[in-house]
Amino acid sequence: MLLTSKKAPFGLDEWLEELSQMDAVTMGAIIRELNKLTDSKESSVQQLSKEILKDPGLTSKIIKVANSVLYNPSKASVATISRAIMHIGFNTVRAICVSAIVIESIMRNHPRESLIRQMARSFHAAVQARNLCEKARLDIREEVFVAALLLHLGELMIWAYPHPSIDKLYRLYQKGANSRDIESVLGVTFERLTIEMVSQWNLGNTLAEALSEVEDKASRMCQAVRLGDEIAIAMEKGWDSPEMASVLKKVSVFSNQPEAEARRRLQTSMSEATQLSKLYCDPKLTRLLKETGQVAEESMDTPALLQPNPQVQLQTLQAIMQMMAGNLDSGKLFQLIMNGLHEGVGLERVVLAIFNQSRTQVSAKYVVGARTVNWRERFRFSYEKQPDNLFSRVMQGHEAVWLGNPGFSAVSKLRSKAFEEVVGAGDCLLGPIEASKREVGFLYADMHVSGRPMTETYFSGFKHFLQQTSLCLGLLANKR
Questions:
Q1: Which has the higher per-residue pLDDT, 202 or 253?
Q2: String of b and e for 340-377 (b: at least 16 CB within 10 Å)?
Q3: How many secondary structure helices (H) and strands (E) does the chain include?
Q4: Does 310-479 carry CATH code 3.30.450.40?
Q5: Looking at residue 302, what is its pLDDT?
Q6: Distances from the Cα of 26 to the Cα of 33, 101, 266, 356, angstroms
Q7: Topology of 2-300 in CATH?
Q8: How many CB atoms lie within 10 A of CB 401?
Q9: 379, 370 in Cβ contact below 8 A?
Q10: Where are the beta strands (DSSP E) in 183-333?
């Protein structure tokens, strides 16, 4: 294997040779053959059917999609590939084939989180891009769909590559390295890999144009592909994000519609992408697309401003003291702590995270607050006793930190990309939960719902409840 060589960094040619050993590369030949059939005026329904019928899994998937409400609102029964082609069209069947082949080939073996996330984003982008071209011919819409789906093919292939060297890159990703950092270690950019694969596999002019640097004279199809990609990225930030505001303006201009109508259409396309992902039988994609939709919907709501409530603080602390004097229950204690921090101190989003059994990861056990959709699944971070691991540094410091505050600048720099993708980049509080010198987990809190500034009052209340948590757990540990 080339990657066992001591020469580094690797270049484009070396990586193309490495990736050529993947089973997924055979999908290039299949897609090429499908392109020939759909592009040729002499191709018949029988020829395309014959090609598809070579793969029983692909056959059943196309029939399933052809019978779905999204493609078959009249609910006319479609039982054969030839009828599916006649009912929804050559190019639509080709787009379904490409989607199914790409998803199955790349995500076949225990995919990394980075791969699942990019695949979900690409699938969402493809639906958005296609729907931006709603007035275009069907063949154009489907070509745009396929181009948007494959726009990040190089990155997808790298994350799908089963090799220890990519495992090392993945660990960098988990620690928060951005694409440029990863590409510098990789020795080639994801975009350059994609461009070369598109050329070698002959994946279409629209995709090739979308990957070019031409801006002023870009075709409408190319613009739709690029804009679909921007929409998918921005929607993960929420409707109230600056990225989404910028994208909405572009969509409004592109479609010649008011921003309110553009927003409605993007929401509809988001729902369509989620429903369509279910037909491809990959629950991981559906989970992430649902999550994106929920984040977008939740960001449109304006929850009432949470205010500090000294009475609730006092009542919660009294309840904790009573528990310490009687029967301690960790579950009830945690609920009291969460309520005290949220309803009492007034911190808008609060998480209590604990270690897994191997103590290699911390993940959310309790979550309260608005805009925390799927945080019980997403608030999950690696824990390594290394100087650059945020959670390890905080635990070793044995005290709460105010990330973003100048007084905690050194530890604030350790926030990873994965961490900020979940909680955002603003000020937040993080404190270690310990029980008689035993590491239990962490408390996290922020004011990111309203965007109001963090203050010393919030930090003081946070530290007080953190101290009570560790004290109670210490007593509980000593009783056992």
A1: 253
A2: bbbbbbbbbbbbbbbbeeeeebbbbebbbbbbbbbbee
A3: 24, 6
A4: yes
A5: 62
A6: 11, 10, 34, 39
A7: Hypothetical protein af1432 (1.10.3210)
A8: 22
A9: no
A10: none
